Amino acid sequence: MGQDQAALVEALDLEDIEGVGHSMGAHAMIDAAAACPGRFRRLVLIDPVVAAPESYANAREPWRLREGEMHPASKRRNHFDSVEADIARLKDRSSFPRFAPQIFRDYCEHALQPAADGKGFVLACPPEVEASVYISSRTNGGVYDSARLLEIPVLVLRAQEPSVDMVGPMAFSTSPTWPGLAAQFENGREIHFPDKTHFLPMEIPDEVAALIRTELEAAC
To answer: What is the pLDDT of residues 9-54, one digit of tens each?
Structure first.
């Protein structure tokens, strides 16, 4: 993912980039910025999926799947009669009640596309594709090498830390970000939201937007 971002930056010959990413996108942006020295001037990483360094070397962590086991995401329901049916199904589940109302509706509406047979809707991102992303999420320990190469200002926004009973392959309510990540950047700092979920931009969009705006103004 980071290589793809870097290739796009090079192909478009972009300069003076202020990069903003959330979750996996923030992880990828670290690699992209390191691969394009001099092109990025500031990063805002919103709860990036960057785990503790040792987790990339330990193949026996409890969240890992046993041989032959399917990732929970691959079992997602993948047919819906309507967008409204999807909204009704999700509105009281997981972290969705904490989403800003319009953002929750956008999330449901744009996650679906018409089914090929014209009957109802299916997920725009097939469950098996989503699952493959999660399964590979601890394969890029080199992201720390990228982080240490960056000299530009980097702001990390980090959500609530998981407790023992929150750890797992679908524990989306808590932060996947190692608390020591910001210190790995030469010019890094962190803002911690101890009572917010991983979905910071969906949960507190105005506050996140204001922080991004402040960073962009500082870069001018």
So the answer is: 999 999 999 999 999 999 999 999 999 999 999 999 999 999 999 9
At residue 108, the 3 state secondary structure works out as helix
Beta strands (DSSP E) in 67-174 are 112-114, 121-123, 153-158
Q: What is the 3 state secondary structure string of 39-63?
A: CEEEEEEECCCCCCHHHHCCCCCCC
List residues bridging with 156 in a β-sheet: 45, 190
One domain, residues 32 and 119: no
Q: Taking the CA atoms of 158, 159, 165 and 167 in sequence, report the sign of the dihedral they define.
A: negative
> Do 59 and 147 fall within a single domain?
yes
Helix (H) or strand (E) holding 18: strand 17-22
User: pLDDT digits over 136-173, tens only?
Assistant: 778 899 999 999 999 999 999 999 998 655 555 456 78
Cα 49 vs. chain centroid, distance in angstroms?
6
pTM for the structure as a whole = 0.88
Q: With b meaning 16 or more CB within 10 Å and e meaning fewer, what string describes 147-159? A: beebebbbbbbbb
In a domain, 132, yes or no: no
- Dist CA 200 CA 197 (whole Å): 6
Q: How many domains does the chain have?
A: 2
Name the pLDDT band for 66 (thresholds 50, 70, 90): low
Angle separating helix axes 101-110 and 83-90, nearest 10 degrees = 130
Domain that holds residue 93: 79-125
